[in-house]
Predict the 3D structure of the following.
Amino acid sequence: GQQVMQIPQYQHVQEGEDFTTYCNSSTTLSNIQWYKQRPGGHPVFLIQLVKSGEVKKQKRLTFQFGEAKKNSSLHITATQTTDVGTYFCAGGAQKLVFGQGTRLTINP
Amino acid sequence: KAGVTQTPRYLIKTRGQQVTLSCSPISGHRSVSWYQQTPGQGLQFLFEYFSETQRNKGNFPGRFSGRQFSNSRSEMNVSTLELGDSALYLCASSQGVGASYNEQFFGPGTRLTVL
């Protein structure tokens, strides 16, 4: 079945440093979604990318969808303590397959 | 609008028992999907219901079942509970069918512990 792999599994940064998480699918995706889950919380939708090579920005967050639509990345510039949480990518044909997530912790 | 609500929030059961979890979607959302979240397996898709019909199903045994009512509220049932069923069960609603095409609005989840 389809697999979505995400790296790294954990990332610890100093506040103000940048952060990037990478997502790779075993199959071509029609689109990819990104979610954030705060500790003790539930996943919250961040964005959906649809087009090959698409780049979208939300303030300090930059999302990219690969040209082959098999990989994606999320980059956070100048992290803040509010960015703490686990970031998931997800994609699939009808069924949503989630990556294992990247847990971001920040040293203030 | 009120968000997705799930009841109960916490549940403790013993092996062999069965359990029913409930989910009320955001008003106007007709699709409800269920997910299991565990530290080992991560977030896994269970099934999706739209207009009272199961539209998609994940790779879970038949002990896991669900249904959706005419008001879009959904329930999922797990029979003959096993220790490995201990997890956070998340419900998500969306406006359209096809979880991979529609923004998922997640509820707070039901934490199930099987002893």
Summary: The interface with chain B takes residues 1, 30-31, 33, 35, 41-45, 48, 88, 90-101 of chain A (CB under 8 Å). Residues 71 and 105 of chain A are 23 Å apart (CA to CA).
